[in-house]
Every structure is written in structure tokens, then in C-alpha cells.
Design goal:
The structure is a homodimer of 154-residue chains. Chain A is mainly alpha-helical and 154 residues long. Chain A is built from six helices and two strands; from the N terminus they run H-H-H-H-E-E-H-H. Chain A binds a DNA duplex (30 and 30 nucleotides) through helix 4.
DNA sequence: CTTTTTAGTTAAGCGGGCTTAACTTTATAT
DNA sequence: ATATAAAGTTAAGCCCGCTTAACTAAAAAG
């Protein structure tokens, strides 16, 4: 018997754990590679959501397009991303990760994920099955929630 | 039948989802309350780990004690934290949240947790039971891993 | 009791992110 | 065809976080 208040407590606690872990690893990796957090965030966005234009960046991070343009500039100068004209509308600049940029992001992700594997190694077969099932349920619920939220803003 | 590679994938995906959610909400709330991310991070640390001294802050965020002192200064000026001499060693300054600071942090946490409850509301009774069980397993494993890691550095 | 170490503060200066404002270029509307 | 709007860029200037370096005060070591 699990009521929703109890589950909420458990989920929140887990979320805190993950968030703390991730945030520390994330900003640490940004620093270690000589990048600022905003710069690295842009790489992450490009990795997870694919190419986008300048206004896509300024929207997502809630900064002016001027700021986005300047940040992109620095990343281009470091060879981590590329700017290209959009074929249909020459005003918009399509921003994509270079191979160097991809490698950097993937390396950072890999490092942060080491903790996940460490965690898994502590579970027995039965626990693994249970965890896998539960997380699939949660991820699916999150996906649905996200889809509905996007529909409302659109 | 769940092998560890598959579980790793699922866990990573879920971790990504949580991290993205949290990070956005977190920096958004910092901005909305007129604080910088580093400043808010300090409040979070005080909330989750209790009072600490200046070197505790500089260690955790990997900044010099000068930087920590300056950040603390701004938070004190805004009435969010308090500095007090340690009774046993008058060199060290004990930093604690004021009521105003507590309220600010708790409000931020509450907002970020709204998503969790939204998620739970999408689950039926059976799913809730499964999720609760799995997360308890994971949180416990994480706690153990953390404990071991601390033992090694100590 | 001096010397050294530890905790923290203060000030100067650098670099980064961000904004506003002025501008260029391309697309859309009338 | 002209006016207007939209996407980016550039430059000036502000604030902030951070570091180094010089300093104060308190504790520990000798």
C-alpha cells in the first residue's frame, strides 16, 4: 500500500540525490574543460535536441539574441560548433556541433554516468528487474507530461 | 530478464530527464528572486547540509576562501544568512540561514517539486507501488555508495 | 613567549555574461 | 515598390564571480 504523499516523498528524495550529483559533476566538467556553464549548456542543448538557430538558444536560456550570438561566437572560435545559413531563409543561422564538440559533450556525459553504473553494480538481479520496470514507467509518464505541456504553449 | 547494460540505459535516460528539469527550474528560480546561481547554491547547501563555515563553502564549490567570503557577504546584506563566531574557535565564522533565507529556499524547492506530483498523478495504484519500491532500493544504494566514497577520502 | 599556522577579510583587477542600442541583411505585407 | 518586420551581429557598458596579494586576528607549536 503506497499512498501518493509517501511516493512523493520518496521521489523527491531520489530527485534531490540525482540533481546534486549531476549538478556538481556538470559544472565541474565545464570548468575542467575551460568552459563556462552557459557555454557548456548550449553544447548540451545541441546534443540532446539537435541543431537549432540563435533564437532557439535565446528562447531556451531566456537571454537576448545578442547574448546568444556572443556565446555562440566563442564556441565557434573554439571549434566546438558551426554556424551555417539556413537554405530556405538566409536570415537564420543553423548551429550544429562539430566532431570536437560532440566528443567533448559525450565525454562529459560518460563521466557523469559512471556513478549510475556504480549504483547498478550494487543491485542484485531481482532488484535490477524491479528498478528497470519502475523507471520505464516514470520515464514514460515524464514524456507524456512534457508532450502535453508543449501542446499547451504551442 | 534485465541485464545491466539495459538497466544502465534506462537509468541514464531517467537521470537525464530529472537533471534537465531540475537545472532549468533551479536557475530560473535563482534569477526570478534576483540571485545569482552561485549565491543560490550556497543557500541550498545550507538547507541540505546545515550550518557551515567559510572554508566549508570554499571546499564544496572549489573556490578560494576570499571568493566564499565575498559571496557570503552579499547574502548577509540581503538578510538571507547570518554570520556568527564559533564559540570554541573565534577564528571560524558559522554561517546559517535566516528565516527569510529558509523561506526562499523552501519556496524554490516546492516549485521544482510540483513536477514530481504532476508525474505521480499520472500513475495508477499498481504503478505507484512499483515505483516506490524501486526508488527506495535506488536511494539506499546511492546512500551506501556515498558513505563508502566519504570513507575513502577521509 | 615567540613563531608559525589557520580562518577569514579586504582591495585591485581580470574576464565573462548579459543588456541596450544602433545597424545590416533578408523576408513579408501592403 | 516601398514599408515593415524578423534574425543576427556588433559595440559600449554594467555587474558579478573569481583570483591574487596583503592584511588582521586567533589558535597551536616550539
Amino acid at each position: 500500500m503506497t499512498d501518493s504523499a509517501q511516493l512523493s516523498r520518496i521521489l523527491r528524495k531520489w530527485m534531490d540525490t540525482v540533481t546534486h550529483r549531476s549538478m556538481r559533476g556538470w559544472s565541474h566538467h565545464a570548468k575542467a574543460t575551460g568552459m563556462s556553464v552557459p557555454q557548456f549548456s548550449i553544447l548540451m542543448q545541441l546534443h540532446y535536441r539537435g541543431a537549432c538557430d540563435i533564437s532557439g538558444i535565446s528562447d531556451r536560456f531566456e537571454i537576448t539574441s545578442a547574448a546568444a550570438s556572443q556565446l555562440v561566437d566563442k564556441l565557434v572560435q573554439n571549434g566546438l560548433i558551426e554556424r551555417a545559413e539556413h537554405p530556405d531563409d538566409r536570415r537564420v543561422k543553423q548551429v550544429t556541433l562539430t566532431n570536437k564538440g560532440k566528443r567533448l559533450v559525450e565525454h562529459g556525459i560518460e563521466q557523469r554516468y559512471r556513478w549510475v553504473d556504480e549504483l547498478i553494480s550494487r543491485l542484485n538481479a531481482e532488484q535490477r528487474t524491479k528498478v528497470a520496470e519502475a523507471l520505464t514507467i516514470l520515464t514514460e509518464a515524464a514524456r507524456e507530461a512534457e508532450a502535453e505541456a508543449e501542446k499547451q504553449t504551442a
